[in-house]
């Protein structure tokens, strides 16, 4: 049967030769007809660009031509010819067309007109057939591949850390429970509590919020590792920046200090974004126009100062600004919006956590470039971050991007057993559950560092999509688990 | 501080130059000392090979030398010199050694002696520091990278399908429930059932058993896609071949028929295994010896007919045998173990499902090569497999490997709406929950196919590890969710 002999439109656009006999398969985007000829725009998902099929009603039957409607899937046999029209250098003169699957124009929801992103979210099973979502998911793929290639080239090992976990050190209660117990009639202990001994794992388990702690274990053996897997938050946040299920990239490196960590994160971000720029030029050009059109509908003060492509190049071509939290507080305290009380949260004291409005001020107004903020107060950061000598701050870093805010969070890890023990005690973190984490500090501990990158935030930044639900195929949010 | 200036042992072994001044960091594997000199075998996880450090007690203090015990982490400054001993061409003459982390010899469990795999499983947070597990996880990384590279080179797009899902079409009840409800006091409806409207997703949800159905949706837009993500089975199987949490690779391709699917799967398996052979030569050589030693402890009839490396090359160098289920039943019916009633499940009738013993007979005894079994009875396969014209079989394929049994399962998918509807009705599959799956058959349907590969099975095959718990960092099995 050899269906596989079809040519992909991407390849045809790049290297199709006039005179070739070829087979194309794909979905009809549009058809324009007159008495003498039909022009079909065909897309097979390999490229944002359609390919033009010329169908002569003397060759292709009326029945077939009638079934060629938007959304239909067809197989085209024909010859590559020089195009008479503008917009393409070649086209295919069809010698035969077979209908693989019809799409009833009365029922197929993706007719060629503008659809709202909200509507397309409801038909996420079909939205990848649109220009916008085709582009988004091709770029998403390119970024994922660039991540693997970057780390592989550097000698990092990819580790799959567990999804189901019994440790909740970072979860802060916002985790999903995983169970095989009968929720209606759970088994109880003598004391009347749930008898988790009868659950699948013989203990209480939940979905991971981060692979970092297990990643550290691997780094203390293999030196440089990274994770790239799903993580979960049962947080009731209905925003454009939150998902209940999202993918995280978490490199962990033995023998890195805080500065090494910053160097790696900056280089990593620049390289993967550069990869997308080189490998997804057509898709990004489309998304750049799309973002500009969207921007034009906004009020002047909400418009981006740079276009999408401009923003991407800006990130890849400029060193990130590196300042401490303390320096940032000074800048913010003396900033116009703080003095004029324009911030929702005014900055007066050292020690407060920064809000999105402050991060965006630093990045978009003050420095006008990505910022690495370091050395936060220990009170607003996690127990595993390395304590600085000042007794007040930890060797944390957050990387802030224009339009996105925090895209990376990381730190040098506390490798000194005593310091770690003391901090865990202060924060009432159950040390018995974490015996394995503490043991890496007992046996051959080493300075090490790492960071976490929310993959969807990166895809948002690179594609310019405003809502995080539009950069993952089937988003999970409060009340939404369709598909 | 610039910790990052250290040289990796892998690079030093490949291209270290006599006379270079370098910094090394890693964990001490062993130390041999006499009055005049100490030899330290250092490993940093970048390679299975240790690097030899020569420490002169006239230069390195007694205190430091005393702390250099197995498992300790050290920083070595020194010069690359030609080695006097055998086993290495260069070594480092230490001018300074700093102890980064001690490892109390009384407490550190990984002393240099043989440890059982069972014991090492209990200290999974440390086992990656052994030769065997270092090798396994480097090979696992190489295979994962090879998967991404293979599909990227072919123009497939990586899709992240959902982990939390409300559809249970394939789950057959063996799924983990995901909830934020209070299990002790779940909210109830008027009718006394659990009120899932109050759960996080406002419905009953569970962990995915496969990304295939969602993968198909993406293939019907982007042509060729693959997934690589975690999947789950709440099956109470305490075997060497089952995990509750494991990673699956699931390519789905529009415009592929059954034969295209087989061609892709065979080529894919051969290419990723070849990649490991080229990129993990040292690790695989070690694992080959390890497997041979383990084999030698077995009874003659249980020993492998081929060594590990031999087996890998055999798979990459030979075409897979392709036979139908019907042909396989004939072979099995007339086989010696069937006639002599040696099979636990005797083969007498067409239609029975094949057991592991039958698959292994076909692969290891009859054909002595990987086998692609096709066209199974529809009764023993899933609803989504394409029905063959005979009315009895479906266009399924299983790929069977020596020692492992089924490593790939796939099929051409049923793209005809009527046939799919009819089969779902026969099997009582809730069609209203699957409206989105059915819509891809309504709107521009196309012949398509795909398969699933259990990644850990592949890692088992390539590393020769007998127990699947030894090829994933932190295995999840009944009663086990430690780390």
Automatic annotation (TrEMBL), chains A, B:
State if Ion transport is listed as a keyword: no
PROSITE patterns to which the protein is assigned, alphabetical? AA_TRNA_LIGASE_II (PS50862)
Keyword ATP-binding: yes or no?
yes
Q: Where is the Aminoacyl-transfer RNA synthetases class-II family profile domain?
A: 137-475
Write the signal peptide boundaries.
Answer: none
What SUPFAM superfamilies does the entry give? Class II aaRS and biotin synthetases, Nucleic acid-binding proteins
Q: Which InterPro entries match?
A: Aa-tRNA-synt_II, aa-tRNA-synth_II, aa-tRNA-synth_II/BPL/LPL, Asn-tRNA-ligase, Asp/Asn-tRNA-synth_IIb, NA-bd_OB-fold, NA-bd_OB_tRNA
A Pfam family this chain is assigned to:
tRNA-synt_2
Q: State the Gene3D superfamilies in the record.
A: Bira Bifunctional Protein, Domain 2 (3.30.930.10), Nucleic acid-binding proteins (2.40.50.140)
Q: CDD domains annotated for this entry?
A: AsxRS_core (cd00776), EcAsnRS_like_N (cd04318)
The Gene Ontology biological process terms listed for this entry are:
asparaginyl-tRNA aminoacylation
Quote the catalytic activity from the record.
tRNA(Asn) + L-asparagine + ATP = L-asparaginyl-tRNA(Asn) + AMP + diphosphate + H(+)
Q: Where in the cell is it found?
A: Cytoplasm
Recorded GO MF terms? asparagine-tRNA ligase activity; ATP binding; nucleic acid binding
GO cellular component, alphabetical, reads: cytoplasm
> NCBIfam families, from UniProt?
asnS, PRK03932.1
Family as reported in the entry's similarity comment: Belongs to the class-II aminoacyl-tRNA synthetase family.
Official protein name in the record:
Asparagine--tRNA ligase
Q: Which organism is it from?
A: Anditalea andensis
Its taxonomic path starts at:
Bacteria, Pseudomonadati, Bacteroidota, Cytophagia, Cytophagales
């Amino acid at each position: 049967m050899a269906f596989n002999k079809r040519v992909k439109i991407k390849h045809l656009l790049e290297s199709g030769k006039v005179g070739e006999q070829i087979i194309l398969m794909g979905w009809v985007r549009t058809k324009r007809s007159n008495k003498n000829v039909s022009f079909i725009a065909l897309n097979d998902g390999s490229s944002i660009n359609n390919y033009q099929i010329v169908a002569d009603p003397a060759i292709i039957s009326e029945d077939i031509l009638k079934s060629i409607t938007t959304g239909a899937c067809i197989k085209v046999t024909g010859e590559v010819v020089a195009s008479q029209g503008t917009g393409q250098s070649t086209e295919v003169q069809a010698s035969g067309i077979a209908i693989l699957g019809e799409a009833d124009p009365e029922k197929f929801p993706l007719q060629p007109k503008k659809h709202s992103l909200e509507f397309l979210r409801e038909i996420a099973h079909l939205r990848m057939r649109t220009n916008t979502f085709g582009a988004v998911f091709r770029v998403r793929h390119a970024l994922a591949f660039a991540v693997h290639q970057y780390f592989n080239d550097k000698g990092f090992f990819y580790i799959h850390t567990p999804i189901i976990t019994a440790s909740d050190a970072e979860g802060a209660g916002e985790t999903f429970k995983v169970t095989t117990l009968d929720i209606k009639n759970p088994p109880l202990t003598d004391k009347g509590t749930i008898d988790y001994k009868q659950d699948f794992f013989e203990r209480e388990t939940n979905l991971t919020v981060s692979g970092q702690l297990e990643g550290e274990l691997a780094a203390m053996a293999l030196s440089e590792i990274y994770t790239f897997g799903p993580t979960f938050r049962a947080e009731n946040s209905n925003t454009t920046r939150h998902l209940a299920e999202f993918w995280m990239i978490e490199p962990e490196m033995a023998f890195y200090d805080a500065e090494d960590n910053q160097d790696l994160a900056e280089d990593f971000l620049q390289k993967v974004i550069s990869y997308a720029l080189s490998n997804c030029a057509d898709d990004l050009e489309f998304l750049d126009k799309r973002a500009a059109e969207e921007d034009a509908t906004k009020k002047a003060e909400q418009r981006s100062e740079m276009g999408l492509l401009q923003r991407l190049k800006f990130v890849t071509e400029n060193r990130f600004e590196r300042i401490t939290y303390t320096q940032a507080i000074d800048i913010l305290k003396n900033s116009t919006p703080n003095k004029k009380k324009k911030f929702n949260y005014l900055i007066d004291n050292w020690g407060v956590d920064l809000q999105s409005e402050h991060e965006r001020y630093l990045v978009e107004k003050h420095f006008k470039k990505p910022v690495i903020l370091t050395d936060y107060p220990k009170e607003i950061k996690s127990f595993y971050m390395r304590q600085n000598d000042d007794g007040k701050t930890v060797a944390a870093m957050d990387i802030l991007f224009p339009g996105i805010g925090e895209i990376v969070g990381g730190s040098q890890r506390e490798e000194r057993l005593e310091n770690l023990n003391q901090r865990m005690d202060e924060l009432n973190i159950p040390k018995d559950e974490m015996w394995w984490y503490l043991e890496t500090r007992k046996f051959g501990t080493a300075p090490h560092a790492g960071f976490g990158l929310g993959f969807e935030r990166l895809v948002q930044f690179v594609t310019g999509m405003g809502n995080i639900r539009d950069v993952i195929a089937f988003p999970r949010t409060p009340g939404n688990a369709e598909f």
